[in-house]
Amino acid sequence: MLGPALVRRLTRYEYNNTVNALLRDTTAPAQTFPPEPSTNGYDTDSTASAPSRILIDGYHGAANGLAEHVVTDLNGLLGCAPEAPGCISSFIQGFGTKAYRHTLSTTEVQNFQTFYDTQRATFDAPTSVRMLLEVFLQSPKFLYRSADGADAFDTASRLSYTLWGSMPDDALLAAARGGQLATKAQVGAEASRLMADPKAKLQLSHFQTQWLGLDVLAVAQRDAATFPEFTQEMSGFYQQEMSAFWNDVVWNGPGDVKTLLTAPYSFMNQKLAAIYGIAGVTGDTFQKVTLDPTQRMGLLTQAGLLVRMTPANRSNPVTRGKLIRTRFMCETLPDPPASVNRVEPAGEPGQTTRERFAAHEATPSCAACHALIDGIGFGFENYDAIGKWRTTENGKPIDASGQIVSDTGSIPFVGAVELANLLATNPKTGDCLAKQWFTFALGRSARPEDSCVLKDLGAVLSSQGLGVRDLVLTHATSDAFAAPGYSLP
Amino acid sequence: MTVSPKLRRRMLLGAASVCLPLPFLEMLWGAKAQAQAASPQRFVVVYAPGGAVPELWNPTGTGETDHVLPSVLAPLEPWRQKVLITQDLGMKVAEISQGNAHAVGSGAMLTGQILQGNDGFADGPSVDQVIAKTVGSATRFASREFGVSWPTGGGGNGSSLNIINYAGPAQPVPPSVDPSKIFREIFSGLSTPAPVGPDPMAALRAQRRSVLDRVISEFTTFNSTLGAGDKVRLDAHLQHVRDLEMSLGGTGGGVTTCTVPTAPASVDINDDNSQPEVAKIMTALLVMALACDQTRVASLVFADSIAFHHFPFLGFTENYHAYQHDKGYQPNSLAILERWHTERLADLLKAMEDVKEGPVSLLDNSVVLSVSEISHPEEHGTTMMPFLLAGGGNKLRAGRRMLCQDVPHNKLLLSIANAFGSTATTFGHPDYNSGPLAGVFG
Lengths: 489, 442
Description:
The complex is a heterodimer of chains A (about 500) and B (about 450). By secondary structure, chain A is mainly alpha-helical. Chain A is about 50% helix and about 5% strand. Chain A has 22 helices and eight strands. In chain A, the strands form four sheets. Chain A has a two-stranded antiparallel sheet. In chain A, helix 4 (about 85-100) packs across helix 5, helix 8 runs parallel beside helix 10 (about 185-195) and helix 21 (about 450-460) packs antiparallel against helix 22 (about 470-475). The longest helix of chain A is centred in the middle third of the chain and has 21 residues, at about 230-250. Chain B has about 450 residues and is α/β, with parallel strands linked by helices. Chain B folds into two domains: about 45-195 and about 260-430, Alkaline Phosphatase, subunit A (3-Layer(aba) Sandwich), CATH 3.40.720; about 195-255. Chain B is about 30% helix and about 10% strand. In chain B, strands 3-6-1-9-10-2-11 form a seven-stranded mixed sheet, with helices on both faces. The longest helix of chain B is centred in the C-terminal third of the chain and has 24 residues, at about 330-355.
């Protein structure tokens, strides 16, 4: 941890979106950059580490590749012939404003012009323009954005990177230039405009992926003999289902916590429906399907999340309980002592998962923490390692009774459906989702002084008829979104 | 804390992997990456005694790439994409080997074998020597072993406490410790080869340097309000840009990988205060021995396993072993000492990275194996061994952390030997030689 960031480095996702918007690049060069280290599960955590040499090499390689590509159509890029009077200067101003996300100062323009003229004395125009682009794309003014600045251009970047994960479009930059981001109403109007763009849908989907850690699905593996249906193709379907459900609830539905957790439907194709044991779904196309309400409802019982919460071939109350505790209840769990790290009770042949994990309860040094974790995780015992419903394990009936242990006592429940209902009716679940968005959007974990803002944001999700989109818009016009010490009228 | 064997079952983690490609340095050189096989592949062992405080060595997190490096490994953060941590390997064979735990570990870690008798020498060849037999005939030296503080206890070449490299059963290969002598042996009479032809990329590299020069100026006008953390991050960023500019070279000559070093200055190798200097010299000699293709197999031995040497330059009054357990387990002090060794490992990686071999680096053409003879310093641990690999040679799948579920480390040794062309199907003691470790090379 190096302290909070007042400037934030673009994430790989933001970098790819930005060069796509700026240069129409579709190669996503940031895929070769090292993954963002994170202390809170979100790639936006810009406090976690200093940039590495490998990242800087990555920026270098990407800048060179991008620049080399776009100068192949030099006149298209410049909009004029390079030798035409004023052509380069107007390109520097126009392109620079976009790349740096603010109007360039006279000095900045002059510096670039001098650089260009110097190169042009030795090299041809395409080479000189290419070098110009390489500077822009490796400059800190491109790679970092001000997180706390009070300038209208900072506000514009904050809006676009929060709502789109990308650079401001021309209209947003024009609003900043024209003083149209000076009041909460004006910021709110721009936020609403941005939310109507398909980029916002992608960004909220990106948030969902990180909130629930769904990247893991792409690399999840299962023993082929035990789970022949778990193929590479299937892991894509798991992701598709979760994404389709999220998009439907957030963009076509109320987007509220209750629907996310208790919706009686989901989306699947034939192969995925087979995992659910649902008949009548044919073909590869995803369709809306009604679920058996005794077995499934909402996010928690989706096969993708169950696979995400299960690290290997057997159900695991620890990883399942941990995800609920950390991502739906926003609790911090200490890592196990390193000397017992990642030790799963081996148990005896023929035991159920529940019997195996009873070792935690029987071991005093494990019991206290694992009551919190396993107590919830046991509620998912009806689902196997690929998310299939089961009523027996090793010939023994499943016991899916669990409990939510807290300081004030414990709430017993049976099965994930009941757990989902309990979470859906607890206002703290909305507070937690709001906190997740806050953490993602601000690029840092919440601090004690954020409690008022978090309360306001959580209240949105407790309000009748309001959902995730309202949360995003409320946050965008809140004081937490504006620079510290500034409050827009 | 000791874990009962009954609980020693590791969670299976998705074994598949997103293997991130290395950043495409070929843009630096304007050439497509040549087939890796075109450059010789090297193997380097780095050994620092004394194990590792588990809480401060073992990465946290559950994923393959999202692991967090604790303080002892933190110096490797910049090398994250070129490091493969083989976490939770077991060194089973040490549990059936007879003798001092440090001798047992020293013998077992590279051979996968027990000691002969009680405290005898290891009963088989070490992986570096197996590789030296496979690739060593191509170079003047089949292998070279470099010692920094060696030996710190008694017994010299005759004690299994002091030996990690073995040419065969009970055939110790002790390290060389005299920098001047090593220099003479390896580099005497050699001269830096002339660049191969004019550098066709000289103009492009000059352009890249001009660009980076301008980028560096951009930092001076990046005048946003910065917090203390921002300053640290941006300073690091700027320094990397400067290093990058430097690495593009200023001479305009061709590409040379081998630069014959100058003779090392005289240094008192018996003075513990000289360790940093000796480590620096040995690292430089080792890297150039590889770069000049005098050998393709090398070991950097920081000390022998009894570790009776001191670290006065870090402010410690007792010898290294004292902090492990001789005077009570002192994890906070150990963490500083262990981290010092990690920093030296990072120095080695940097020196190897700085040697460019066509579109990649010497490091990319190497496999570096970093080991210690025990895990938990107090318990002489034989589980959760603090082993890691670095580099990119032989398609090492770096940039990841593997959770190895307490499988015998013999599997890793076999995989490495196989990667360098050995056709062996087992490695080390017959009880623990069940095939290679999947996922290391690919």
